[in-house]
Amino acid sequence: MTLPRIVVTLGDPCGIGPELLLRTLPRLASRADLVVAGARAGVDLLAGGPVPFAWEGDRLATGGCSVPWIDPTPHITPRDLVLGQGGAASGLAAVEGVRAGALRVQGGLGDALVTLPLSKAAAHAAGFPIPGHTEFLQGLAGSPLTRMAFASPGLCVVLHTVHQSLRSVVEGLDEAAVAETLSFAADRFAQFAGRPGLRVALCALNPHAGEGGAFGHEEAILERALDRARAACAEGAWAHVPSPFPPGPAPAGWELYPGRPARGGGVPEFSGPHPADTVFLRAWRGEFDLVVALYHDQGLIPVKVLEPETAVNLTLGLPYVRTSPDHGTAFAIAGRWQADPANFLQAADLAIRLAARARGGA
């Protein structure tokens, strides 16, 4: 059986990405045909550490395996970097590594992309004013719409807005935009999960879902958005957006996370707006398959409390599979070999399984 082709981007070479990669490379190489894109200098910063490695031409060898390496910024050397400190050089290396990896997958030379964390501040210092991976990858792919999702065995969440101020979220709350997120999230997540009829819960904005208007009236906007989302899904509004998966249902027995019972019917069940202080626990206990949160921290706090090691960042709307660990560069501990690779392994595992399905396997 041909192994899935996975492209891993190193992320910021001054963060924990290089050490996570070195510690896990033999395990990943046994399950996938790997290529790494990023600054070789980031690995060279770790020379003499507890994981020995060597360069064999354009391949990295460690732990009995050897994988191809693409370095789009060969002019950046260890002298240009400071372990644990992001800057213009590391930001340039990180962004160009993502570009190289994404274009490789888009060009048909990979089945999925796994991105190690980059620093937005370092990317900005390098002249790339990007909000994050999701928006950058959307631009490279020319995708009409993307959304940031988080998947784990117990809790799956899609964010309506991501890296913006809370004030702007409230001031910009829009019925049509929320309906778009709801219907798109239900459509795309059903594809990733391999089953239709997902139970989708929408978070309220105000405490107690507004308490009948006592704490705000934004929930009326959300109720109308739910009605519009139901209509959009019934019309198949997102059939034109590229998908990494072939037409038709997932292979028999396939599940994004085994153990959750499959549901019948092709139309999602939308409900809400639900008070945000209870809806995530209800979903974690199995009442909902997916929660749509209105802003970054509303969705990410419960994800990181309830599923800190297993939650994986998953991009909806790209023509290929892209996953990422749900953590940052952790500059403060970079080079100390204290970073836990568990979440990165979860991200890689999900990418491998989804890539196999995208190629028509189970």
Structure description:
The protein is 36% helix and 16% strand. It has 362 residues and is of the alpha/beta class. It has a 13-stranded mixed sheet with strand order 3-4-5-2-1-6-13-12-7-8-11-9-10. Helix 7 (175-193) crosses helix 8 (218-234). The mean pLDDT is 92. It comes from Mesoterricola silvestris. This is 4-hydroxythreonine-4-phosphate dehydrogenase. Keywords: Metal-binding, NAD, Oxidoreductase.
Give a short overview.
With 362 residues, the protein is α/β, with parallel strands linked by helices. It has helices spanning 17-29, 40-44, 88-106, 120-125, 133-141, 166-171, 175-193, 218-234, 276-284, 296-306, 342-358; strands spanning 5-9, 33-37, 54-55, 59-62, 65-70, 112-115, 147-151, 157-159, 199-203, 269-274, 290-293, 312-316, 321-325.
**H/E series, N to C?**
EHEHEEEHEHHEEHHEHEHEHEEH
CATH architecture level-2 label of the largest domain: 3-Layer(aba) Sandwich
Strand content: 15-25%
Shape category: globular
GO molecular function: metal ion binding; NAD binding; oxidoreductase activity
Protein name: 4-hydroxythreonine-4-phosphate dehydrogenase
Keywords: Metal-binding, NAD, Oxidoreductase
Organism: Mesoterricola silvestris
Which helices and strands, and how do they pair?
Elements: E1 5-9, H1 17-29, E2 33-37, H2 40-44, E3 54-55, E4 59-62, E5 65-70, H3 88-106, E6 112-115, H4 120-125, H5 133-141, E7 147-151, E8 157-159, H6 166-171, H7 175-193, E9 199-203, H8 218-234, E10 269-274, H9 276-284, E11 290-293, H10 296-306, E12 312-316, E13 321-325, H11 342-358
Helix pairs in contact: 3-5, 7-8, 9-10
